[in-house]
Design a protein that fits this description.
- This protein is 25% helix and 27% strand.
- With 89 residues, it is an alpha+beta fold.
- The protein has a single domain, classed as Ubiquitin-like (UB roll) (Roll), CATH 3.10.20.
- The protein has a five-stranded mixed sheet, covered by helices on one side.
């Protein structure tokens, strides 16, 4: 992956439940500048999918089946998912 901050990367993000219903599918594609960090990806999702703005505030990104920190870098090979707030009893 290139490290030029103007280089755009297309990241595929899996979504589930109510968030998938909002966007009408189980995958998002988001353009993000390099290096792709979780915080940049979250901003990109908010910009590209404004209908998710409210739910994104209570969501986390998982990379390769583990929750990721805001500064974690995402590569082309990573599996990325947006995990919304889950409630239950």
């Amino acid at each position: 992956m290139k490290t030029d901050p103007t280089w755009e990367n297309r990241i595929r993000v899996r979504v589930f439940g109510p968030q998938a219903a909002i966007v009408g599918g189980s995958d998002l594609e988001v353009e993000v500048a390099s290096p792709v960090t979780v915080s940049r990806l979250m901003r990109g999702i908010q910009t590209s999918y404004p209908a998710l703005a409210d739910s994104i505030k209570v969501s986390r990104i998982a990379v390769n089946h583990e929750f990721a920190a805001a500064e974690d870098v995402i590569t082309d090979e990573d599996e990325v998912a947006l995990i919304g707030m889950i409630s239950g009893g």
